[in-house]
Amino acid sequence: MSVTRFFVLFVGLVFLTALSVCLYLLGWVLYIHWKYRHIPSPKIMGNFFMGHITELTEFEKKGRHLSMLFLKWKKEYGTVFVIFTMNRAIVVCLEPSIVKELLVNSRSTKPAALYGKFHTVFGQRFVGNGLFSELNNDHWEKKRKMLNPPFKRKYLMDLMYQYNNSTEELISYLKLKADGKTEVHMAHEFNKVALDIIAKVAFGLDNLNVIHDDDAPFCQAVAQSMKGLMHYIRTPFWKVDFRKESQAAMEKSRKAMIFMRNIAEKCILNRIEDIKEGRNYPEDILTHIIKYSRSKDGMMGMEEMIDECFTFFIAGQETTAQLMSYTFEMIGRHPEIYKKLQEEVDCIIGEKPVISYDDISKLEYMTLVFKEVLRYTPPAAGIQRQNVEDIIINGYKIPARSNIALSHYSLSRDERFWDKPEEFNPERFREDNTSFDKEF
Ligand code: HEM
């Protein structure tokens, strides 16, 4: 075969393959739109093939939360509507009854298109099949049962010493900075203290020095891993992004993840040794993970145990730190709330050097403030699930294996359930307040 013929054949084949892929994708997109044609959907402003991606990104660029866009669309299309992101349909359900239906009554699974992304990031195992990203529902249920005890009140009550300790360290660090001139980024400080507490209480790691050392490698690695994850989620075509700076950023994220996973591995090996040698060890999350790995249901190897440890770090740190940061922001914006909080703390805690679990349960107003912060700015705005069977919501049939978005941010700002939802008002959670739907 002559070189020219070979070249023509090669170009023809490439062209045909590209055409087939395009036709397949177009067919799939049309099919997806057809499948959900009975459910209301906001008008697509940009390219039909891209679906609502343009609207979503434009809204985010204005610095607004996507959940607010869902609330806007709710007014026009009702509480159940479908949005399209290229080849995917996402049914947005803004009804509390469906949250209960999917998470409590009927079986649902985690959609791979979202949760699967957490498994491996830029080719490096991230949280793998940990509790958060476990896609096999049977495996998830067993793991969840086994890893539930550390979330119970009794377990948390025993950790007061550690909370006091880390808070004390943060205060002493802030005192050093309090010269009237140095700016302190409190979101960063809360990130550090959340990390410090989780490392201590969940994994017995008490030598990380994250509070006093801004450049502590552990802290940097967690931040870099999270940055890498966000970059990865927003960059579907990363494999063909050969730009030098992109490659360098990906490599940095991979290294951070390896660093974190290595630390988790060391923790696991040390604890296994402690258990084997009959030394004293705490019944913390790490012990539960190791015990689960050895149970008949668990049967986890080292990689899977590391997945679980890394999951707890990532899931627990960011959310807790955000809750603290938002609380700080809200009390800064509302001096009257700050004053009331201060009065309560002065009255109940006063000059006590160590705070007990009982003291915390007496801080009623503070509890109201935290509840209101969780309502007003929930650190995790929503979740997604897939229904195992067809379900009917508001008269619409949602076909089995649909991606269903549940937004507690949107529900928390919904006038049907809250009086003046845009107002930050901790008092709304008082027992005697009847202005919101308590069942909700
Ligand atoms: C204010 C603090 C927190 C908030 C608002 C929060 C919120 C959430 C939400 C909404 C989910 C469900 C995610 C989904 O299914 O897509 C979740 C899952 C999870 N969270 Fe948290 N979380 C907080 C603190 C923590 C802490 C302190 C830990 C551990 C140390 C933790 C560990 C986890 C784990 C392991 C999961 C996966 C559970 C499963 O799928 O069974 N979280 N969290």
TrEMBL record:
GO biological process per UniProt: cholesterol catabolic process
TM regions (residue ranges): 6-31
Protein keywords: Membrane, Transmembrane, Transmembrane helix
UniProt-listed InterPro entries: CYP46A1 (IPR039983), Cyt_P450 (IPR001128), Cyt_P450_E_grp-I (IPR002401), Cyt_P450_sf (IPR036396)
GO MF annotation, one: cholesterol 24-hydroxylase activity
Coiled coil start-end: none
Family to which this protein belongs: Belongs to the cytochrome P450 family.
PANTHER family named in the record: CYP46A1 PROTEIN-RELATED (PTHR24293:SF0), CYTOCHROME P450 FAMILY 46 SUBFAMILY A (PTHR24293)
Protein name: Cholesterol 24-hydroxylase
Organism of provenance: Holothuria leucospilota (Black long sea cucumber)
